[in-house]
Each structure stands twice: as C-alpha cells, then as structure tokens.
Amino acid sequence: xxxxxxxxxxxxxxxxxxxxxxxxxxxxxxxxxxxxxxxxxxxxxxxxxxxxxxxxxxxxxxxxxxxxxxxxxxxxxxxxxxxxxxxxxxxxxxxxxxxxxxxxxxxxxxxxxxxxxxxxxxxxxxxxxxxxxxxxxxxxxxxxxxxxxxxxxxxxxxxxxxxxxxxxxxxxxxxxxxxxxxxxxxxxxxxxxxxxxxxxxxxxxxxxxxxxxxxxxxxxxxxxxxxxxxxxxxxxxxxxxxxxxxxxxxxxxxxxxxxxxxxxxxxxxxxxxxxxxxxxxxxxxxxxxxxxxxxxxxxxxxxxxxxxxxxxxxxxxxxxxxxxxxxxxxxxxxxxxxxxxxxxxxxxxxxxxxxxxxxxxxxxxxxxxxxxxxxxxxxxxxxxxxxxxxxxxxxxxxxxxxxxxxxxxxxxxxxxxxxxxxxxxxxxxxxxxxxxxxxxxxxxxxxxxxxxxxxxxxxxxxxxxxxxxxxxxxxxxxxxxxxxxxxxxxxxxxxxxxxxxxxxxxxxxxxxxxxxxxxxxxxxxxxxxxxxxxxxxxxxxxxxxxxxxxxxxxxxxxxxxxxxxxxxxxxxxxxxxxxxxxxxxxxxxxxxxxxxxxxxxxxxxxxxxxxxxxxxxxxxxxxxxxxxxxxxxxxxxxxxxxxxxxxxxxxxxxxxx
Length: 657
Prior knowledge:
The chain is of the alpha+beta class. Helix content is 17%, strand content 56%. Strand 1 (48-54) and strand 2 (58-65) form a beta hairpin.
C-alpha cells in the first residue's frame, strides 16, 4: 500500500509539473522554439518569435518574418470556459518574399477575435490595395462560417499586382460581400462590385499585346447571388475595345452553367498585335452556354460583313465535338476587308458547315459555300496587279466532306473570263498536305490581253493536278496550238515540254504576223526566283507565208522558197525580261540563221542580225525596233545590181514595217 501511494504521488506530481510548465518562463521558451521551427518549415524563410508570453489567462505573441513584416497578437482566454478575447495586427511589407509567388504589394490588417470555441467572431480592418476595408468573419468550431466584407476604393492596379497579374488597368473598386455561409456546397449570400474611374494602361497593353487604344476608359459592374452550390450573376464591362454583358447561373462544383452573353469588339484593327493580321471592322455576337463538363451546348448569333451568322456547338470535357454553322448573305467585299485582305471582289456569300465530329483525326461533316452575283473589283485588282484588270462577273460553288483527317472538296468557279473546276481537291489536316486535280477553260483570250500586257486571241483549255506538302508541285497539260504542252512547277522551278505545236497558231494567239508555220518540239527550264532559264527546240516541216522578200528572191534568182519546207533549231536564253536567242532554219535550197538576237519583252523591242543563204548568194539583213513593226536594213550588193538592191530594200521595208 505504501509503494502504491508513493507511485500515485509521483504520477500526480509529474502531471502537475507538465500542466504548469507551459505557463512558466522555461515552458514559454520551449514552446516559442517549437513554434519558430514549425513556422520556418512552413514558410521556408527565416522566422523569429521575438516574444511569447503565456500565463493562466493571458498571452502575448510577436513574430518577425525576416524582412517581410511582423505579426502581433495579445489577449485573454479561459481554458475551462474555452473563451477568447484578443487583438491582432499583421504588417506584411513584402508579400512576394512571404508567399514565394510572383505577386507584389503590402498587407496591413488589425482587428479582434472574441467568443467561445464553438463560435468565434473576427472583426477587422485592412488597407489592402490602399482601400478602406472592413470585414467580419464567424468561425464555427474553428471552421469559417460567415463573412461580411465592405471594400471602399481599392486600387485595381494593386489588386492585379497582388494576384500576380500585370496592372493592365487602374481605377477604384467598391464591393460589398455578404456570405451567410461560405461552405462551397451550401453557399448563401450576395456579392456586389463596381469599378469607377477605370482606365486601361495604354503603354502596358501596347507593349504586351501590340494593341494601340484610342481611348482608355473602362467601366465594370458585377452582381452575384450565391445559394447552395449555385451562383446567379450579372456582369457588364465597357471599354475602348468593346463591351461584354453576361448573366446566368453557374454551379462551380459540377462545372455547370446556364448563361447568356452579348459582346462586341468595336474595331478589330485594335487587335492586330494579338492576331498578327490587319483585321478591320466591328464584330457583335450574342448567345447562350448551357450544360456542364459532361456536355456543354453553346450558341452564337451575330452580324458580320453585312450578313448573319448562326453558330451551334457541343462541347464535352470543354472540348468541341460537333458544330453547326450557317452564314447567310455575307458581302464578300466586307468579309475580305474584315479579314485584312483588299476588297478585290464582291459577291453574295452563303454557306453552312454541319460538323458531326470535331475530334482530331476523326472529323466527320460537310461544308458548303456558295457565292452568287459576284463581281470583280477592277479598280482594286488593277492596283494590286499593276496591270489593267477587265470587268468581270463570277459565281463559286464548293462542297466539302470531312472524313477522319481528310477534307475532300468539289469546287467550281465560273466567270466570263475563265472557269476553274476541281472534283478531287483533298487536304490532310494532320499531315498538312494538299492535292487536287483541276480543269481550267479560257473561252476568249482577248479578255486577258490587258493582263498579259500584249494582244491575245483564241481560246485555251488546261488540265492538271497539284500537290503541296513541304513543296508545291503543279502539273498542267493543254492540247493547245494544234499540239500538246505539258508543264511542271516544282516549287520555284518551271519546266515545260512542247510537242508538235504550230508556230503559226502561236503567232495567231500572240496576234503577230503568221509568217512561218512549223511543227515545234521543245523544252523550257525556268527558275522563278532568279527569273532565268532556257528554251530549246526544233522546227519541222516549216513553211513561210507569202512575203515580198521571197517574191523578190524568186523574181531575180528563180528560186521558189515557198515550196520548200524548213527544219531547224533554236536556243533562247531567258534573263528576266530579256531574251538572247539563236535560231537556224534549213531547206534543201536555203538557210536562215541568227545569233544572239536580243528581245526585250517589256519594251517589246528586237535587234537581230539575220543571214539568208540561197542560190549561192548570201543576204545579210538586220531587224531593229518594235517587235510588231521592226525596221529592216538589207545588204543586197552581193546578189543584185545596185538598182535592184534598192528595190529589195524597199520591198523588205514594206514587208517588215
């Protein structure tokens, strides 16, 4: 019994010592050390508990947060009644150092904590963002239960800095927040906020986004009612960029929403720094968003480019899976201007896209576009091309099918200048590869004379195909000029093959005197980047048309070259607008030859030294001047007497001028 009593006394003494020790100076120092160590681990920065006084019913604690600031609290408490009455003050001069996040600013707040452990009330005041803010918070069993906050004239730029964002705007924010419950599953309260004197930071927006604002005024307002897990809201924002008005219901826990919106961008040109394009004009849209993360349905209705657009889309996991877009009676000229392109044409544009699956690699749907009553803007096109563009009308019809990663299109463009059709246009979205077969028909080349900068006549029909992946590869085939022309454009290199084409028909097409008709076979190699190349070819079975030169030759030499067929070769070296040509024509009785004939395709001039050998005589003559009517100088001294030579010169002048 004595031993048991002694043991009980020892245990009671230890309990008493352990109960009393925390309230003694040694106990205070021990607890302060533990608290300091735990704070340093949590904040990952030096912390100094400079004062920790704990007695039976009072306490004082002061903490120095290195250079970030300090916290102080003092008051009275009762362990047995579990009551507390305390005052606190926090002076945080560097939020960046304290949080370790990319935020900036200061926080000074003070207030009181009073009540019992089941229900504590915190009443405080802060000058956060240079505001006059009062707050009241209820703690139920140390869990936040209700909050009331009144914010007066908080600086928006400092609030943005506190959130780690660039201060793109400034102004005074006033807000009233009354939350009877802040449990996310049982919200109950209201939020009202209004921005007054708002100004957008013109220099910062220009530096960050390349947007040049003509005006910097900003207005904003928000009203929200929170009930259970639902937020009913209405917000309005108005600025130089545009306005946004939205209202509806949001359930943050489930990601659900049922809202309406209307927004407008006053001038797309202001967004060039973001879009990288010189867009123009206003855009206005309104619509609805309804659903949740499982399925979200969105609609939009707007007026753009003088017409109407209607948009419906379905999102799953907030990613688009299907869409239905209709455009009615858009003006092509306004649409081109909106997209930053010159208004080269106008037309009535109608289209629809029914996209039943938008998942990458598994796309399904159809897209149709129709342009009616199209008219080319000859003035703008002339300015763009640097050559006179003729007045013309056109229509366009295209139908596309989306199959997996492929977009397959049939398109037909018809105008009174030319028509272009493709039934096999295909684009691989994943590989970014384009391929198409096409047919082009030009019924009257005379309409294109101004574009070619020279007279043309006749017609042409061209078929071919193109592919584009890393490089462009274009094939073109035409049964033109009584023969066949096959050409290939490989990125910047053009090659063409001419088979059995008629030189007479070529002269007819170019509206030149049809002085020589032969079958021509040849090849063209031309580099588009350097504008250099070569044309090589051969002439077969060539016949000259009647001309005074051959008439004179037949009169004085009895040699009839009209009955003779000429074969020959040519080599033309192309250098931008200049041509350096060699040519030789031979029959069994005569030879025509020129070396380094100079042709300027822009000035339309020629300078060629030509030698004619016939009946044992050599007649050199020179062509010089405009291609259509060159001047001719003939040396006939070796063939005829002086007087006859004058007649030959006169006849050559008559023929070539």
